[in-house]
Design brief:
alpha/beta; Conserved hypothetical protein from pyrococcus furiosus pfu- 392566-001, ParB domain; 3-stranded antiparallel sheet; 13 helices; 8 strands; 50% helix; Chromosome_partition/occlusion
Length: 350
């Protein structure tokens, strides 16, 4: 049968099985592309938020652990919360080593950050880096250069245990073997008097403050703790006491504590480190040491002191007064320079 009256022929089953092909029009393609782009953009934004949150968490962790470096004004940093781990800070501040550090910072900038933390009042307190901070303060005072008005620092935002602050303070110098036994003992003594620490026993604190040191070295520090406590400030030059001398004197004082009064009286007559140590040697030998006429002859000791006048550094020694300055003295008229020296001598001879 070829057809019907309407001219239609039967539909072939094969034609029904053929896949219908539908072309996407321009509008559909645009919609699909926009939807795909939006989906991809949303995924990117979600991933970016996740990354930002992770970065923020890592930053907070690094900041709390003191691994973030910041610039802090030198006058914003206080040194009142912790005692320093050095004796004779004024001598260190005017030493040749301090001048060398200042020259290095002036030429190359601050290479090593200091470490600071916030106290209970929210103020920055120094943990490590007293010499670097002092050098920058001196440079700013001497030059007025804004480069030296701030210091690069690691800031620990989270509150550390009090004992950890002490340990961190001394750790750097102990590792560099830059502290004397007397200075290490002094840290323990000061820490024992810290009400916020609540430790009390200086000799017991040595084990906590210097736990990284060999037990024999900790034993030496405890001997110096005992020595300084027994002499109650009567030792005028504690840094000059050698390890063996300090340990032996402490051992004798432990065996005969009533001898401490006599040794304190004797040391009151010591005007130099050499005299002090000769008195300690005599104490060990069981000899009485006179503090006036019978004073043992001492070896001549080179003594000097230094100070600043404006931008000039003055070093005074026996037979020498040296002036270091940026001033070109050769450019000054000789008669003018001579008048200045004559006025200098006239003041000295008043």
């Amino acid at each position: 049968m070829s057809g019907n009256k309407f001219g239609f022929t039967p539909i072939d089953d094969k034609d029904l099985k053929k896949a219908r092909r539908r072309e996407v029009g321009p509008m559909g393609a645009a919609v699909r592309e926009t939807a795909s782009s939006l989906n991809e953009s949303t995924e990117n934004r979600v991933e970016q938020r996740r990354q930002n949150a992770s970065d923020a968490k890592e930053y907070r962790k690094a900041r709390d652990e003191g691994r973030v470096l910041v610039a802090v004004g030198i006058n914003e940093i206080h040194t009142s919360d912790l005692p320093r781990d050095r004796l004779e800070l004024s001598a260190v501040a005017s030493s040749d080593e301090m001048d060398e550090l200042k020259a290095s910072i002036q030429e190359r900038g601050q290479k090593e950050p200091i470490e600071i933390y916030k106290d209970s009042d929210g103020r920055f307190q120094l943990k490590k880096g007293w010499r670097r901070l002092t050098a920058l303060k001196q440079l700013f005072e001497e030059t007025g250069d804004e480069r030296f008005s701030s210091v690069t620092a690691r800031v620990a935002e989270s509150q550390s245990d009090r004992i950890d602050l002490y340990i961190d303070m001394v750790e750097e110098n102990v590792v560099r073997e830059d502290l004397t036994f007397a200075e290490m003992a002094q840290v323990a003594i000061l820490a024992s008097k810290d009400a916020d620490l609540g430790a009390g026993d200086a000799e017991a604190l040595v084990g906590r403050l210097y736990s990284a040191l060999h037990k024999m070295k900790r034993s030496y520090i405890r001997s110096f703790v005992y020595l300084l406590n027994e002499l109650e400030g009567a030792l005028p030059f504690p840094k000059a006491v050698s390890r063996n001398l300090g340990v032996e004197v402490a051992r004798k004082l432990r065996a005969s504590s009533d001898s401490a009064d006599g040794l304190r009286d004797t040391l009151a007559g010591a005007s130099t480190a050499s005299q002090q140590n000769e008195m300690l040697d005599a104490f060990l030998a069981g000899h009485e040491v006179e503090t006036t006429r019978g004073m043992p002859r001492e070896k001549p000791e080179s003594v000097k002191y230094e100070f600043h006048v404006g931008a000039s550094k003055i070093t005074a020694r026996k037979g020498e007064c040296r002036i270091l300055s940026g001033q070109d003295f050769t450019s000054i008229d000789r008669s003018k320079l001579q008048r200045a020296i004559e006025a200098f001598e006239a003041v000295l001879n008043e």
